[in-house]
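Reopening: structure tokens for the pyridoxal-5'-phosphate complex, inputs below.
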Amino acid sequence: MTVKKINMADTRLTEAEITAAVEVLRSGLLRQGPQVAAFEKAFAEFTGAKFAVASSSGTSALHLAYLTFLKPGDEVLVPAFTFFATASAVILAGGKPVFCDVDPETYTLDVADAARKITPRTRALGPVHLFGNAAAVKQVRDLAAKHNLKIVWDAAQAHGTRYGGGDIGGLGDFVCYSFYPTKNLFVGEGGMTLTDSAAAAELMKLYRSHGQGQKYKHTLVGYNYRMTDVEGAIGLAQMTRLPEMLAARRKNGAALTAALSRIDGLALQRVEENSDHSFHQYCFTVDPQRFGMDRDALRDRLQQAGVMSGVHYPLGLHEQPVFQDLYGEISLPVTEDLRSRIMAIPVHHGLSEEDVAAVIAAIKGAQG
Ligand SMILES: Cc1ncc(COP(=O)(O)O)c(C=O)c1O
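Re-run output (same inputs, fresh job):
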């Protein structure tokens, strides 16, 4: 019997999205133009943000945000349990990431640890809405207000995440997205920075295109971080099914939570209070004693049943060779525990009810 494979992501475009891309290809107007501008407008409206600056990736979206205010040697407090670019963007802009631990249940920035690591050089906080779970927004904002820090929210995994009744894209100061193919909204490669500052948006547009306000007149040394109109057209077309894709992720997430919360030895990601998770990833930790096997053994069993899984992330950023070379070795116990016991299972918009049931059955079956 062949086992149906259930993948971690569904990166297929719809016919409407393909048509939108083909129209741009036919027009020959491939560079950044009206499609990107329309995508920026639509995404800003969806999130409630004032200004939107599209770019070539989530990494460039973060880099552009930091370029607007960071000075050489400025420190930015970031969680160690996240993707590399959360921290590398700080370095690209001339700053120094300072690694903080995360909350063991929500997996997002431990704000008390961040508070302990503030120094006279601290200039910003770089919290991450990890896996689509809102960070501790109120505590982050309170800490930033107390010490006059900027906030660069890493929302690369959090399209559609809500906090306090609004979309996290409207939080200001800077909210940075990725449109990589596995993300909740995807165009290929792309990113966007949302902000409530008109001046910052203008500056980011300059940095995005070689500091070129007018053609061949350069007022600063910038980058080529532009998004093409092919990607802009795909993003704009996909906006129309974003609510539907998010609803599917949430429905799948709720079904997984209902079933898995009853299994001894699995601890699910706690959703931050007053917020709505967008389930970019569905993650939990495995207690080997209580569950009867460790994370890696469970992953093997799932694979035999055709259910793919992932580990985000197998190392804390403070354990990455490059950061140990740069900043020395530190210990962050929660991150180190999470990275050795966490795993992700399929939750994406392309799953059928049967797929979700098969994922649950495979986890239950692994124990028996
Ligand atoms: C938390 C986080 N930050 C930043 C990025 C960088 O985005 P990109 O890959 O589009 O450069 C990613 C992408 O995986 C991410 O997950």
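The pocket of pyridoxal-5'-phosphate is lined by residues 57-59, 82-83, 85-86, 128, 154, 156-157, 178, 180, 191 (CB under 6 Å). The CA atoms of residues 265 and 289 lie 7 Å apart. Marking as resolved unless the reporter disagrees.
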